[in-house]
Amino acid sequence: MIPTEETMRRLVGHRFPGGQYTIEHWENFLLSEATGVEPLPDSLAHPVHLFHVPINGVGTSITELFALAEVDGSSPVSIDYYDWSIHEPIREGETYSLSGGIAAYERKESDGRPTVDSFTYEIDVTGEGGDLAAHVAFRWHYWRIES
Amino acid sequence: MKVEVGDSIPSWTMENVTPERMKTVAAILRDPTPIHWDREVTRAIGFEGRLLNQSPINLGYVVNMLVAWAGPTCIRRIRTEFPVPVLDGDRATAGGVVKAIEADGDVRVAECEVWLDRDDGTRNLRATAWVTLDDEG
After folding, report:
1. Which of A41, A78, A110, A133 is most buried, judged by most C-beta within 10 A?
2. What ipTM was estimated for this complex?
């Protein structure tokens, strides 16, 4: 059953618990290799870490984001956009503090097409010195396919 | 490097998108979505059993291109959309062009239109990137 629009809209303003994340060398090595390159010099982390470090570090997970939107792993979820602002280089070995939540929600309905619920998430990545290192925003589409 | 509006960014190619890398990434990201490792699932949703590459990794190819061009800390902001998935076995090439250059204090920042294309011309990713230039202006 498709959750009501009102139920989904109540999630706007939801704050994740917050937390910390330290990128280990092995993680930077493997993720860099997965993109086809060796790790960057001077302990720089590959910027692609700005996908999972905010999600896992802020105290949530892909699984929980799906659950909040009331879908499971078999439901179609697509990505609308990522928007990453990088204020300081992200480095392995540095412990980042993460804070953020659900910033926006929209339901789209049209004749003959599945209902789509779109959630925008925003998370701040703060370095050990207290300065904002990065801000990430991303919007995912949850397709409501009734079986 | 002297960068000007209209310059093309040297391309970067992932020669072969492999399922082994997707599985490694799924574990690191703690991404339970079976489209990255279960061919039965991707067969059922119309991808003929080919696995779908993780979107952050597609973006990673574009990042690799920008880093090779302008240095490891060059990216200030990147806003990315993913119209079509990249599949295992694909050859994907990142490209881009400089659309504008503005000064931010003593630093020049290039606004770049960037993308990731499959060999058949399908555009898998399109993005706008703002990149710090370490050049003579």
Report:
1. A133
2. 0.94
